[in-house]
Design goal:
Blueprint lengths: L3 E2 L2 E2 L29 E4 L1 H23 L2 H18 L8 E4 L2 E3 L10 H12 L11 E5 L25 H13 L4 E5 L9
Parallel strand pairs: 6-7
Antiparallel strand pairs: 1-2, 3-4, 4-5
Length: 197
């Protein structure tokens, strides 16, 4: 047996040739990570505690925004109603811990963070009649490179063309959108993992 595969400590594959009791597939040992980005699902009492503090945080953001606890609670009730309407068909929501943040949706930033608080302020602003609508999520294509041939892709004619944005351009664009209130960036492309610079 080999000790490492693809640089992952503890992974093993069989080096026995096929036909001598070994299968044709690589067999990997379970990976346990101490890396801060390692994730785990949250459930039970821990989930209840996280939800409690999450909603306390949302209440604090709301009170800070409106400076009036009655209006803040009214807006929170509207936000809960909106959330319940969105999730009517899918009431099963998974909570996950990644590093030091908690996630419950692909479309909201992790909590606790300044981005999450900004996202909540934006969501609360939906119910204000005296504010203009602002952008809170940016879907940003950082590359035109892709080695897949997905049937549903509508970017085929644009794929595998020369890159038009440098790393500095991408950074500048992201900073500008962040300065204008964007709290969530969804990276796309092409295949964004093809661009590692």
């Amino acid at each position: 047996m080999l000790d490492q595969t693809a640089g992952i400590p503890g992974s093993t594959i069989s080096d026995t040739p096929p036909g001598e009791g070994a299968s044709m597939h690589k067999h990997y040992a379970p990976i346990k990570s101490s890396h801060p980005a390692y994730h785990r699902n949250i459930h039970g009492i821990e989930l209840r505690v996280i939800k409690f503090f999450l909603w306390v945080n949302i209440l604090i953001v709301s009170i800070t925004k409106y400076k009036n606890p009655f209006l803040a609670i009214k807006r929170l009730k509207q936000l809960v109603k909106l959330k319940d309407n969105y999730r009517e068909e899918n009431k099963l929501i998974k909570y996950a811990s990644v590093g030091k943040r908690y996630y419950f949706s692909y479309n909201s930033p992790g909590w606790p963070s300044k981005s999450f608080n900004r996202y909540i302020k934006h969501q609360l602003s939906r119910f204000d009649t005296n504010t203009s609508v602002t952008l809170h999520t940016l879907v940003f294509g950082i590359t035109k490179k892709c080695g897949f041939k997905c049937e549903h892709c509508f970017e085929w004619s644009n794929l595998n063309q020369p890159e038009t944005l440098s790393k500095e351009d991408v950074t500048k664009i992201l900073r500008n959108f962040s300065d204008h209130g964007v709290s969530m960036v969804q990276i796309t492309g092409g295949e964004p993992l093809n661009r590692f610079n």
